[in-house]
Structure formats: structure tokens, C-alpha cells
Amino acid sequence: MQPPPLMGEVELGPVGPLEPPEAPEVLVSRRPGGIRVLKRNMKRNGSRNCLNRRSRFGSRERDWLREDVKRGCVYLYGAETNTATTTATTSLSSDLHLVLCTVETPASEICAGEGRESLYLQLHGDLVRRLEPSERPLQMVYDYLSRLGFDDPVRIQEEATNPDLGCMIRFYGEKPCQMDHLDRILLSGIYNVRKGKTQLHKWAERLVVLCGTCLIVSSVKDCQTGKMHILPLVGGKVEEVKRRQYSLAFSSAGAQAQTCHVSFETLAECQRWQRQASKVVSQRISTVDLSCYSLEEVPEHLFYSQDITYLNLRHNFMQLERPGGLDSLYNLQILCLDGNFLTTLPEELGNLQQLCSLGISFNHFSQIPEVYVKLTTLEKVVMAGNRLEVLNLGVLNRMSHIKHVDLRMNRLKTVIIENLEGNKYITHMDLRDNKLTDLDLSSLCSLEQLHCERNQLRELTLSGFSLRTLYANSNRLTVVNVYPVPSLLTSLELSRNLLECVPDWACEAKKIEILDVSYNLLTEVSMRILSSLSLRKLMVGHNHVQNLPVLMEHIPLEVLDIQHNLLTRLPDTLFSKALNLRYLNASANRLESLPSACTGEESLSMLQLLYLTSNLLTDECIPVLVGHPHLRILHLANNQLQTFPASKLNKLEQLEELNLSGNKLKTIPTTIANCKRLHTLVAHSNNINIFPEILQLPQIQFVDLSCNDLTEILIPEALPATLQDLDLTGNTNLVLEHKTLDIFSHITTLKIDQKPLPTTDSTVTSTFWSHGLAEMAGQRNKLCISALAVDNFAEGVGAVYGMFDGDRNEELPRLLQCTMADVLLEEVQQSTNDTVFMTNTFLVSHRKLGMAGQKLGSSALLCYIRPDTADPMSSFSLTVANVGTCQAVLCRSGKPVSLSRVFSLEQDPEEAQRVKDQKAIITEDNKVNGVTCCTRMLGCTYLYPWILPQPHISSTPLTIQDELLILGNKALWEHLSYTEAVNAVHHVQDPLTAAKKLCTLAQSYGCQDNVGAMVVYLNIGEEGCTCEVNGLTLPGPVGFVSTIKDHPKPTTPSSSSGIASEFSSEMSTSEVSSEVGSTASDEHNTVGLDTGLLPRPERRCSLHPTPTSGVFQRQPSCATFSSNQSDNGLDSDDDQPVEGVITNGSKVEVEVDIHCCRGRDLENSPTFIESSPTLCPEEHARGLFFGIRRQNSVNSGILLPVSKDKMELQKSPSTSCLYGKKLSNGSIVPLEDSLNLIEVATEAPKKKTGYFAAPTQLEPEDQFVVPRDLEEEVKEQMKQHQESRPEHEPSEQDRTEVPEEFDTAL
Hints:
The chain contains 28 helices and 61 strands. The strands form 13 sheets. It has a 17-stranded parallel beta sheet, with no helix packed on it. A seven-stranded mixed beta sheet has the order 1-2-7-5-10-8-9. The two termini are 56 Å apart.
């Protein structure tokens, strides 16, 4: 469709360059075929390889797009040096063409208008391919956005016009030259070239490049457009041309060899080319990689050598109905056909007798191909991710050369045994992630290793003749039969099943070294298991074991995990008989004491790691620890310790990590200075009041003393250079001097409580929620977790909390921490549907990651609390969205409620099937292309469409039964169940202490990775209301001090969450308070002055928010007025002083906003009428109503009248964005009211009797007070006014319409 002409365009004759007013640098040209091109010369944004704001077109182009959602624009980039691994600052600037077109416009039409031969498509800064003439670029962009998750056509059109999209999908008018291609260029230059062996061809000047193993010849003009002649040199020859000086003849190999003559200018140049080309010619290619080339068949004339041994055709569109030349590669040894659309294999492949590896995973096979019978050199059948539903063991019996069978992620339901003949050849079988319910492989008498995890197995039967390792985790096993007793068995893993006892045959296995039966229903551990002379690692955690047998003989056990059982004591001879024991985890039991490690004068214990968290241990267990002199890691968190004797700690000289959090300690012994190897001390949530002497330790790195009673810190002159993290949050009485802060300045992370800000109305909302955050790096040297916490979000009526886990990268979590709240605020203004604005928030954040999101990815979790408009019975609603493995759990009536979905291959079969259907390669460690186990993330755009950014969204209304919300990353929920996490923090008073406790528990339960937890305490209920109707009143404006009823103080302020970085999101510039002046005429003030009270509504909390749609939202004004008063306090226009105002006659300066608004009928604000004093009849007649609003808050006030029309206009989500602008602090203010408030006021009609009646900024000596003898009288008058208010609103007949009236302060 032809776009409408711009102003100044000439319809007749040639179209010349135009300069629209909005963008003078734009050149508009009319092209044939109904498209329009905007050419721009623009700079690159060096940080993200995307265009800056100057790339956006003007309003006329946007108007043309809005007429039809099928219209759009395509950014057409010029040729440039581009690579995904280099920064954008090294790329060359180029012209950008902005093409306006429709979804029906083909690439050929754009090429004709641009004078190009073809267009090129690049996805995610990776591979580039040429577009077919019939392909439609704009439709491709729309389809791409639709698959990402956008579903609104208008929003898709808007996103397509954003230049940042170029980091994900980009079109080129010329083929870009990749940096890796330039690295392969050996020689290049412009020379005279003649093609062919005869002299009939003429010499012509051409660009000649020796690149890799090819000679590339192209015209100088079209060298970058794809017009080139490629001559493969491998197996060919290079000869001197005798009839022409300084010339070489390059010839390819094969029956149809081609020759190219090149003439050089000097002898040295000719010799250099000859030496280099001779090396290329003598090469023998053994490896060919044609993966991801969109091939439908193997090119028959691609290879000129028979030396190819490795051929990779992965991720193509091949069907191989015929061999396509593969049968001629007799020396081929490895053939990879993974990720294609194969259903059969041609019989000709059986001629490849040297083929030893054939990969056909993630295709469409429904049975094992018969060609395997002929390929006798193969040892493996690799068919993971296909469509097999039945496994016929008889087929495998005919393949005596097959030893390994990989059938992961198929659809297997049954296994068929044709006859009783056993298979003596298969040694390894992998059946993970299928749908098997019963498995009998007793006929595989040579089976050594079996993987059958994540099926639905109830019974398993195997042959034990050769069995060495068995992995059957995450099933429903109640019976495991192995016959005969596996004498060679070394490793047995049966965790996460329904076993009630360890199988007898496992107790009799003589060589078993590893036994994992955790997460079952065991009630006891057999003496035969514990006393095994071969067992080195025993995992019995998360069962119901009540006691362990007493050891009578020495055992070689090295690792014992018995956490989460019902143990009250450990065997008395455990440490004396298990002398090789190095790791013991007995956390989450009921231990009250520990067995002694010393049987004589000297201890022989070799114990190095001891975890005893969450038991009932007291100070009596401390002397026993001295018997383990080799202890490196000691966890005694959440016990009942009150003291730690200094003499005992002095003997633990090898200690490297000490965790004493969650006890009742008052001090840390000074002898801790003798632990020279100590690098981690965690002692939060105690009663410590003296800072321990740890800053003298030479290797100290991490110190956590949060949530204690510290008051001061005595520090040395120089801190250890190794100290990286110091956490002092939650010490409410701790005061750090500037000198101390300067000394701590070199610490990478210093966490301290922020000073509280002056009390404002926005802080009232924090009584409904407060949060605490804990992050621990574990045994990794960097923290790849970031959190977002905004207790007062969107003008203080909501809150936003988020958790971002980058796994191995820290860049993306920090980027999301800084940007995601702003994106959410913008999306909330455009839509009130929680699914829409949450989805768009994630998708836009995904786009904003730019180049950083091409190769890196991050899990993301976002929780948004807002007033609930849909459910009148609920005050707030909670909307949770997540991608990846971060999760949120709500505690409702003491029970956990999961609000998230885990997007991983192991835990989400639906997502795993989607990834399989889209031909992704899932490696044996269950990772997409070997990169990540997540199927939905923000970032990792190069793994599209397998990994998507579309989130899972859930919404729930918050009620009084909702107590707290827990946000955690993958590592937290891997080691803590939902129920255990809720029970652990259910009765903890402080959210920071609760978050710390969760992280400590995860580490004590075996977590060695980054772990993060955020706990949000909820107080949703009428008892948490802070409205004036519930007892909280404000100081009156007429010279008396009101009594303020104290509201519940949060145990920990939101500022003490532990976030100590430049990415703090808790403070906003919108929280700056200012004195606000009321504007009223002399008529309106008469009532208030006569009665001693001004009409003012009560303060409202977030539970009962003031209707905001019709109230002017103030922003700070720059205008400061000096009231024109004489020394006696009289206004210059008045003859009498203001009644009821007591002043000392000083000059008053106030900061105010000047504004004008219309009156509003009383019916529009019934809530205010109930709490306002009685209005005079004159005010009833005018229908005026004044609402108090304070700066940047929903619950606060300026006194102003409000227009009903304006209120209705602002209720619309679209108009809220249309008539408002976004400030740097994220707040929204009506646009027409924020431009120049003073000018608006000067244009309003003025009354000669008007005067300025704003309250002054009080000095200490100027405070308005009520004498003690008049307090009761004033309170009685206030009570009478409240009782005398009208019981019902006036009817419509009582209200009279009056002309518009404006009041001003001038």
C-alpha cells in the first residue's frame, strides 16, 4: 500500500531529498513497488550495538503505521565487519535505511527499490543467510515477535519499529563480512585474472583472496555482494605460467577441474603466493562441518578428496531418502545427523565399513533402522529424542556388534522380549526420561551400566552377572530385583523413590562403594550396610531413620549423609570405628549430644567437614569438637548454643569456615585469632554485642554479623587485603564513624543499614509489607545473583520484588535489577491486565539486554503487589511471573502455596517435549545444546526458538491469612522443600533474619553454589490499617498539636535488607517531602477560621487508598514565594490578621505548587464526605470538594478542587499514558498540569479579596500549640463536628449547577 506523501513531497517528476521538521537528517525517497525508504546516517550505540534515539522516525510515519497493523518498517543495515564476540565499538559505522512496507512486501520488491541484488538475514548476531526473493521481511519480524510471546498486533507493530530489535533479528542490504572469515584470509590483492585453460578468455582486473583452502575471485565492485568465483585448492595444483612473467595457474581437483590464471606485478609477490598456495594444495581435509546450513540433502559434488573422516550435518532439514553421495565417502568414520527430519536411513550407508560412530538423535525414527545390522564397526546406537514407543530386544540381539544403546527422551512405554535367548553383547543402556512403568532387562546378562532415571517405574528386574552401576533415581520404585547378587556392583543410586528398606542383594554386594537411598521411606539402616568393608559413601538423608546401629568393627566409610531424619543420638563408636570419615552431615535431626572421638590420649579422627545445623545441641557438645583437630568446615547454626569456650576454639587451628548463626551467643571468643586459616565467619542472628577479633586474620574473606546487638567496632589501622564481604545490617544500635567507613572503603561489598528518612506518608504503606534479603556466594568466587526490592512502588500503592540468577554470569542479573522495575512501571500504565503487562515486561526486558543477551542468559522472578480492583473482598493482589528456575512461595495459613513454574528439562515434561519438537540437541547432562537446563530464560537469544522469554504468570488476591512470601533461586529450592522453608521462617519476627536463615539452611544441607533468598512479610488486614478512622490522626492546620497513635513498627526497616551496591532500588527521588500550601478564596476560609478547623479528609493507607483518578498528582515545583507580610504578621491586602493563626511576626517563605482545578460534585467522593467536617450551604451549592494530597503519594495532600471530567479521563489506561509523562523517578504526572503551573495560575481569574493561606515552614520557636487547659475543649469541638456531619448525601435535586469557578493563590 502506498504511504501518504509527507509535507513537501512532489507527486510529479523525480523525487528528491526531503527534510521533515522532526528529523532534518532524514532523506525520504519514493521507490517502485509501493514501499518507502528513509535513509539515515546515524551513530552506533557502542554499548549495545543498537541504534540510538535518532534512528526513530517522526510522527507522520507513525500515523501512517497506525492506520493498518499490517504496515511496519524494516531496518536495513549496510555491510559492516560484524561478530557476536567482539564489542560494538570495533564495528564500522554504515548507512541505515528505514524501509516502510507491509507484511505482503517481498524481499525482491525491497531489493528493487534499493538497487540491491538480495537481502541477508542475521539472527542474534550469529550466522547470516541470503533471503529468497519471495520471502517477506516484515512478516518474518512479526512472526519472530509472535513466537517470543507478543500476541497483540498493535504491540507487535510497535515493537517492530524499535531499533533495539536489531540485536535479535537484523537485515542487511549487503553481505556482512564476519571477523572469523577475515582471520582465515591468508593473502589478498587486486590482480589481472584469466579464467580457463585456453587463451580465448580475456584478462580482467579482479580481487583475488586466498582464504582457508579456497581461492576466491570477484570483481572489485561486487566483492561484498556475493558475486564471486570459488576455486577449491585441496588436492589441486599450483604451477608457474611460462608464457607470462610472474603468473601462476591455480587448478582444482577432480574430473571437472577448473583453472584460474593470476598475473602478479613482482617476482617476490608471485613467489609468496606460490609458497602459501602450495601448502593449501598439499592439505588433506579430514573434518567437514556443515551443521546449521539449512541443507535438504548432501551436496554430491562438494568433496574433492576421499580423506574425509568426520562429517557433521547436524541441525539441517535432511531426509536422506537417497544417500546423496555419502556412500562414496569410504573413509568416513564419524557421521553426525542429529537434529534433522530423518525417518529412515538408506541401505547404501551400509557400505561405509569404516563408520564407527553414527549420530541420529532428535529425528523422527519410530524404530531402530535396519542399516545398523550392516554397519558392523559401530558399537553404539545413539537415538535419543526420537519417537520410539516400543523397545524390541530381539532387534538388538541381531546386532552382535552393538554394546551401547542410548534411547533417552523417547516415548518408550514397553519393552518386548521375543524369546528367552539372552543378549551377551549390550553392556550399557540409557533409558532416561521415558514413560516406562515396569522394566525387565534380566535377559541382558552382560549389562554393566543402566540409566533409567525419571521414568514411572514401580518395579525393576535386572541381571547381576556383570552389573557395575545402576542409576534409578526419581521413579516410584517399591521393588528392585537383581539376580544373582551383583558381585561387581560399585555404585547404586535409588534416591527419590518409595523404598521402605534397602534391598537384601545390595547388603550382600561385596564391592559396593556408593549407596544413595535418600528421599525414600526408610525407617532403619541395616547393620550389614553400615558395616560393609567396601562402602565409602552412604547417603540416607530425607528418610524416617530413628537410630543407627552401633559399630563393632572398623569400617572404611568416608562420607555419611544422614540429614533430615529422626535421630536423637549418634552411635557412641561412630568416630572411633569410622576413622576414615571425612564428611558428616547430620543436620535437621533431633540430636542433643555428640559421641566422643577420643578413646585414648590422642584422637585419630580425620573428620574435616561437619554439618550439625538445626538440632538441639547445647554448650555441652563443644568439648567433643576438640577431638576433631582436622576440622575445616563446622556448621552449628540454629541450635541452642549460649557460649563457645575460648579454650576449645583455640584448638581448632585448621578451621576455614565457621557458621554459628541462629544461636544465643553474646560473644565470639578472642581465641578465634588463632584460626589463621579461617576465611568465612557466619554468626548472624545472635546476641553478639562485641565485634570479634577477626580483622587480624590473614585469610579472612567473608564476615556476616548481621542481626546482632553490635554497638561499635574496634578496627586495626590496616585491614586484611583478602576481606571481600562484610555484613553488618540489622544491628540497630551500631553507629559507624566516617573514619571507620573510610577504612572499610576498600571492601568489595559492605552492607550496613541505611539511615531512616524523615517520616512521610509513603512510609505508611510499609506497615503492610517489609522484606529481608540474603545472598551467599558459597564456594564460588563470584556472586551471580541479584535482587530487586521496591517497598513503595508506583506512588507508594504497591511493591515489587524480584530475583535474578545468571548461573555463571553476573552481568545479566545486574542489568535486570536496574531496568526491570522501570519497564514494569511503563507497562502498568499501558494495560491493567496482569497477564498482558507482566508478559510485556519480560519481553521488553529481554529486548533491552541487547548484545549482552545474545550469548548470556538469566532466570528471572518478578512479584508485583498492587491494590486489587477486581475483587472487592480483597485489598491487594499478588501477580507473580517467572522464567527459569527462580521460584516464589506464599505462606497462607501456615501452608506453602507455590506461585511459580520451574522451566527445566527435568521438571517440566511439556517444555522438554516442545524443545524436542523444535529439534534442539539435549546432551546427556540434560542441557539444551549443552548450555543450560532451562527452557525459558531472559537472554540466550542465540538458542531461539528452543529457549524463550515468555513467562509463567499467576495472580492471587491477598487475604489476612497470607503471612509471608519467599523468593529463592534454584540452589535454595534444590535443598529446601516448600514446607520446610515456610516452617523455618514462619515464627521469625525479622524478615532479614528469616532470609539469612534460609540461606544458612541451604548451605548446611549441602549447597555449594550461589544461593539467594528474599522474605517478604505481609500484614494484610484491618489491624494493619493506618487510616485516621482507625486512630491515626494528623496535626491540624489551625495551631494545635494532634495526638498520633503509634502504628506497628516493622521489626527491620526496608533499608536493612542487605543490599549494598550501586543498584539499590529502594530509594526514589519521588520520596522527597515538601511543605504543601492550600489554595482557597476568602469565602471558603471563613468557615474554617470561624470554627477553628479547616475541611480536611483523613489520611488514607494503602489498604483503603484514596481514589486517585480524579486528584491532581503533585510534583515538586521550583517556585518559592515570599509571603507579602508586614512585621506584625498582616497581609498587605488585608486590614486584619488571620484569625486563629499565632505567629511571632517573622517573614515566612514557603515552597508551593500553583494550580487551578474545577470543582467536583460531592457524589464523586463519598469516602471523603464521611470524614470531612460539615460544609457550609454555600459550598454545597457550588458542589465543591477539596482533596488533600501530598507530594508523590497516594495518601497525602494538597487542598484542591477536582474535575469530574478529568477524573473519568484518567481512569482509562490509554489516557493515563497519553496525558502523562514519565519522570526520572518513575512517577507519572499529568502532562498539561506539569509544564508550567505558574503560567496556568496567572491566566486564571483573580479575586481582589483573595489571599495566600499556605502553612509556613515551622521553626522550633514558631510551632502552633494548644494550651493544656484548652486541649479537652478542642477535642470536644472536633468530636461535635464529626458527629454533626450529614448522615446521607444530598439528592440530585438538591445540587445546583454553577458556572466554573477558579481559585488561585495569586
